[in-house]
Write a sequence for this structure.
């Protein structure tokens, strides 16, 4: 979706160090002398990480299941603490009591046309020796679900696209005309699919238009940044750059909404949030996506408008930042 490409551009807006050639052009926001000092420090910093040590650290930290409250979680914390102190940091462990629910009974079954019971466990892999540690693993479960027993048809809704709309219309017509009854074979019993409402047409134009506007604003900013590279290192530009960066800090906040997501007001970001049923896994443009998945089409339409407004506000902020950048050095 084009709006995602626009959103990705936001991450590039905060006065980056521009690519330099062999002539060691000054970094954006630095004088030539300060640029060399900055490069020296960056070189020292890049030389510190040791890939072999990082690999060993990750192997050690992930050698056993280490979910919150587990024995290896505590072991990891103490191991990290010892290293922090070895490196000269004033570090300590703080303990907090938190609610961490885990399931006792988990069952996922398909009841018809044939019965199938899911194993709900991952297979062991020869290349991963930790995959055999069944006794310490948490069971697979949805960490945000409540207790309950739910039995319902499994329906794939898709996203209200024209081909899906036509498919549902045709199947509903077959149900009305008795096609499934006429072709029923008692030797191979099947269950006719339920009748579905045809998904309405959703107008994504406001969101797409806002995304294209954001792309243009981001391009304007980047072009201005390239043109102003030479003057950004001047002593008189420091305060202007500070003001500009303070404004750019607000760019991420423009993508939030005080009312939050539908039925989850604690999630304020309109472009990404953990999914309702997917735990920590993020969903992009969650209000629109989950409105469609849950057949709340009016809600999805409203969310399209809210996302469009957020992208428009973001575009306005970036456009104003570009104008501020243009005034530096005049």
């Amino acid at each position: 979706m084009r709006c995602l490409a626009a959103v990705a551009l936001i991450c590039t807006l905060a006065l980056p160090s521009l690519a330099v050639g062999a002539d060691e052009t000054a970094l954006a926001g630095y004088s030539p002398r300060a640029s060399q000092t900055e490069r020296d420090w960056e070189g020292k910093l890049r030389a510190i990480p040791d890939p072999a040590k990082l690999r060993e650290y990750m192997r050690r930290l992930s050698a056993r299941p280490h979910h919150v409250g587990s024995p290896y979680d505590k072991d990891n914390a103490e191991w990290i603490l010892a290293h922090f102190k070895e490196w000269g940091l004033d570090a300590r462990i703080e303990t907090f009591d938190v609610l961490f629910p885990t399931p006792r009974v988990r069952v996922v079954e398909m009841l018809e046309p044939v019965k199938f019971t899911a194993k709900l466990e991952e297979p062991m892999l020869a290349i991963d020796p930790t995959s055999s540690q069944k006794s310490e693993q948490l069971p697979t479960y949805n960490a945000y679900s409540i207790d309950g027993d739910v039995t319902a048809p499994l329906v794939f809704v898709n996203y209200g696209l024209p081909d899906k709309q036509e498919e549902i219309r045709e199947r509903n017509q077959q149900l009305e005309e008795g096609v499934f009854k006429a072709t029923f074979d008692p030797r191979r019993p099947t269950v006719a699919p339920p009748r579905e409402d045809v998904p309405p047409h959703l107008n994504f134009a406001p969101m797409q238009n806002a995304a294209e506007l954001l792309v243009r604003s981001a391009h304007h900013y980047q072009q201005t940044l390239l043109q102003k590279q030479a003057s950004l290192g001047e002593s008189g530009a420091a305060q202007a750059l500070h003001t500009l960066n303070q404004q750019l800090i607000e760019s991420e906040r423009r993508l939030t909404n005080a009312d939050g997501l539908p039925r989850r007001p604690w999630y304020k970001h309109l472009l990404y949030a953990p999914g309702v049923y997917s735990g920590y896994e993020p969903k992009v443009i969650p209000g629109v996506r989950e409105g469609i998945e849950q057949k709340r089409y009016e809600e999805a339409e409203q969310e399209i408008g809210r996302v469009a407004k957020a992208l428009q506000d973001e575009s306005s902020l970036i456009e104003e930042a570009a104008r501020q950048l243009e005034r530096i050095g005049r």
In short: The domain at 2-47+201-327 is CATH 1.20.930.40 (Transcription Elongation Factor S-II; Chain A). The two ends are 39 Å apart (CA to CA).
